[in-house]
Fold:
Amino acid sequence: MPAIAFRRREQGCPLRFRMVAVRLPGYSRAMHRLALLAALVALAPLPLAFRQPPQGLSATPIALDPRDPGRTSVGRLRYLGGWVLRGTDRRFGGVSSMTIEDGRFVLLSDGGVVTRIRFVGAGAQPDYAMSELPDGPGDGAVKADRDSESSTFDPASGHVWAGFETANQIWRYTKGFAAADGHAAPAAMADWPNNEGAEAMVRLRDGRFIVFAETKRRTDGSHVALLFPGDPVDGAAPIAFGYRGPGRGFAPTDAAQLPDGRVVVLHRRFGVTTGFATALTIIDPAQIRPEQDIDGTLLATWAPPLTVDNMEALAITQSRGRTILWIASDDNYFALERTLLMAFELPAGI
Structure:
């Protein structure tokens, strides 16, 4: 995760769906666009409804393009809605990975803080809780001990795995991060640089794991990645391969598996003068071969003035036959950054 000092927020203010009794030139068109976006958000197959955020948390709707609030596409993706999340707990933020478990978003920060959120419609009880990881590398006295940058989830067992930078370890926890029940320091990750280690990790449904190094590269310029044939905590020895992302400066920050078995990889890029950019690609694990490169197929890439931040977390859900990509950002606990949660539909046939 890079150390960020400055970032402009010229993308505009959060979008709020509120009718006004003033008629200006272009009013009808603008209201039509706002109504369209509001309808898309309302109809989206979300496992939550942001009409009722839980106490201690706010969720402010945002447009994909503040200049054109009716815009609903970027690359090959369809925008369903997005929100700026703000919590009153000082630990809220720093989101580096995300899973969705039993209808709850489970956000893991790069300081070992777990945030569980479930937003529901009128008449139901919202769900919002924060806790610390019960165990991990070191004693947790300093942030570097619990620099948890990746996580993945097995819905059958309830186990959750977290990847830690600096220590270059993978820890396994029981359901809901209740307790740690094993960990490993894979030899293949031993020389990964501090703060640039296991930034993205996904457990495939067949029990294999893929782990991506954030910036460590092979001699041919591809990103170092590992495919474990089984649980790394149980001692599975990986094969190494190279991953080629969407272009210069982009680093993988998270990954999640699609219903068809392919894997979506999330990327982040930062420039002092250009700010943040993000990109999403797809790879097919069936094409992974030892010591060979695999290329990601680009789904979308975007940068300011479109809504973007330090995008580090990705989860995938399916509802009514539609595949939804959820993306969240790490605000680095920095006032000029935001915790975003954005939803995109991956159209059928891609």
